[in-house]
């Protein structure tokens, strides 16, 4: 089994930092002390002018992005380093306000044009589960539209008053993608999705997510949709397993705050049904096992039994085992680099025939009419 998708997908110091950010305060502070010691930060001079660079510069990107949550969780702990993280929290809150303003403009414009919307990732997670716009740094805002509305959505967003612009490269190859980035004059990044998942970029793939969508209030006068808790957790698990040079860790925090939220019910069997239907059982199983082992996820006995017995097709197993391996092929290297920066191909080897394009769809779905033979669409 490949190292990238083994149970130990997190580095030891990342696990310590996550526990410091998430677990009950008395335990979290202990893990924070262990994390500082592991990174030789336990003896830093808190009055030193270069304190923050000494903390942040050696960290991987995901660990850096976790710091506002650490600050908010431990701000009353009395630890001498924590007050120095206040500026990171404040920056995150201010940065995220830009996206709150922009999402209202984007959703408002699309809805005025008769296009349904669903807001994904950072904004609904912050509003519904974290309850704080300062703890989860956003680099873009994600809005999903129905697949058959993609062209109209791009047209609406590129016109005044929004006047968003896109990469000519992404626009040219949009039929290969599940989403594309558009930017305003201030470089605010709008990630417009017409499919939820990069692995399943074709008409009809998102039908269950739209059907179960829940209302999300952006302003008293503006409401959109977002994923149900079960679908949000499913998205967290598969999105966190996107290929990258270093293990992603924010999906752990996003998942923990969701399943620990009072009153939130997860339909575990539906989640496993989705994993099997979309042939994403491999990352879902690995992610749930990690959360069980280290982050207090408690699954019903029948769900554990089903999870342990989850059958993976040979194609699915091969896909996820080959994905992280080093290669000398320049084309594969390019695709992997682009995926690591947020660009996705929309091609996935194992497809469930029941999830193929709707009859009569004009979308280039990238697989044969039976839904069982899959190749990446060719350049037009």
Task: Describe the 3D structure.
- This protein has 380 residues and is of the alpha+beta class.
- A 5-stranded mixed beta sheet has the order 1-2-5-4-3. It has a two-stranded antiparallel ribbon with strand order 6-7.
- The radius of gyration is 21 Å and the shape is globular.
- 37% of the residues are buried.
Keywords summarizing the entry:
single chain; 380 residues; alpha+beta; Beta Polymerase, domain 2; five-stranded mixed β-sheet; two-stranded antiparallel ribbon; 8% strand; globular
Number of helices: 16
What characterizes the major β-sheet? 5 strands, mixed
Structural class: alpha+beta
Provide the number of structural domains: 1
What's the shape? globular
Topology:
Blueprint (H helix, E strand, L loop, with lengths): L11 H11 L2 H14 L12 H6 L4 H14 L11 H27 L5 E3 L1 H9 L10 E4 L5 H9 L6 E2 L1 H5 L6 E5 L5 E5 L13 H5 L2 E6 L2 E5 L2 H11 L10 H10 L8 H10 L3 H14 L6 H8 L5 H9 L7 H11 L40
Parallel strand pairs: 2-5
Antiparallel strand pairs: 1-2, 3-4, 4-5, 6-7
Helix pairs in contact: 1-2, 1-4, 4-5, 10-11, 10-12
């Amino acid at each position: 089994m490949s190292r990238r998708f083994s149970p130990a997908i997190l580095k030891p110091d990342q696990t310590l930092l996550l526990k410091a950010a998430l677990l009950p305060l008395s335990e979290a502070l202990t893990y924070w002390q262990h994390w500082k010691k592991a990174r030789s930060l336990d003896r830093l001079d808190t009055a030193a002018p270069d304190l923050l660079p000494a903390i942040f510069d050696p960290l991987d990107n995901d660990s850096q992005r976790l710091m506002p949550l650490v600050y908010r969780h431990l701000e009353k702990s009395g630890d001498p380093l924590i007050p120095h993280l206040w500026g990171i929290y404040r920056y995150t809150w201010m940065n995220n306000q830009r996206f709150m303003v922009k999402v209202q403009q984007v959703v408002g414009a699309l809805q005025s044009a008769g296009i349904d919307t669903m807001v994904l990732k950072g904004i609904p997670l912050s509003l519904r589960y974290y309850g704080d716009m300062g703890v989860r740094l956003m680099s873009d805002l994600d809005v999903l539209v129905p697949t058959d509305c993609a062209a109209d959505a791009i047209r609406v967003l590129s016109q005044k008053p929004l006047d968003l612009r896109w990469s000519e490269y992404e626009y040219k190859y949009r039929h290969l993608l599940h989403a594309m980035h558009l930017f305003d004059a201030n470089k605010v990044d709008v990630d417009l999705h017409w499919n939820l998942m990069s692995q399943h970029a074709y008409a009809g793939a998102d039908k269950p997510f739209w059907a179960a969508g829940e209302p999300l209030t952006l302003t008293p006068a503006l409401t959109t949709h977002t994923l149900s808790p079960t679908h949000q957790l499913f998205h967290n698990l598969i999105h966190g397993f996107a290929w990258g040079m270093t293990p992603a860790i924010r999906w752990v925090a996003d998942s923990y705050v969701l399943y620990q939220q009072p009153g939130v019910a997860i339909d575990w069997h539906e989640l496993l049904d989705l994993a099997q239907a979309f042939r994403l059982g491999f990352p879902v199983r690995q992610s749930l096992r990690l959360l069980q082992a280290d982050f207090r996820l408690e699954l019903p006995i029948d769900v554990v039994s089903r999870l342990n017995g989850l059958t993976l097709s040979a194609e699915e197993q091969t896909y996820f085992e080959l994905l992280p391996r080093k290669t000398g092929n320049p084309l594969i290297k390019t695709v992997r680099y682009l995926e690591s920066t947020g660009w996705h191909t929309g091609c996935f080897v194992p497809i469930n025939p029941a999830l193929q394009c709707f009859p009569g769809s004009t979308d280039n779905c990238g697989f044969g009419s039976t839904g069982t033979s899959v190749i990446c669409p060719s350049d037009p």
